[in-house]
Design a protein that fits this description.
About 80% of the residues lie in helices and about 0% in strands. By secondary structure, it is an all-alpha fold.
Length: about 130
């Protein structure tokens, strides 16, 4: 857990140096976690052992986002905040299901959610 926190902190520091906006940074984080999950899905037999770690990283990302939505000074409108919190609850539920019963096809929804959020954050909501 400590190493993961260091990795995320390092990513934030790198992003600041590169001049990335908060939305760009978050978009990249969602793409990164979706890519890791997709790699496992596409190479299930060889990669399924890595599913718990990938799910934990995804859960950590969603925990950060959910925490931000709960902050008093969050700039997002209440409706959007509530929608994101409901989405986070769904992601957490699916994560725990997959940890208990790993299924290749169960990963798709997490990948799709992350990629859709990434597109929205990057301002590219259409395909």
């Amino acid at each position: 857990m400590y190493q993961q926190t260091q990795d995320y902190a390092g990513n934030y520091a790198t992003a600041q140096k590169e001049g990335l906006s908060q939305n760009e940074l978050e978009s990249r984080a969602f793409i990164c976690t979706a890519s890791a999950l997709n790699k496992i899905k596409e190479n299930w037999e060889e990669e399924k052992k890595n599913l718990p770690e990938a799910l934990e990283k995804n859960k950590m990302l969603w925990s950060i986002i959910a925490s931000a939505m709960k902050e008093d000074d969050c700039p997002q409108p209440r409706e959007i905040r509530n929608n994101i919190l409901q989405l986070a609850a769904f992601v957490f539920k699916r994560t725990f299901e997959l940890l208990g019963e790993p299924r290749r096809e169960g990963i798709d929804i997490l990948i799709n959610i992350n990629m859709n959020i990434a597109r929205g954050l990057s301002g590219n909501g259409s395909d």
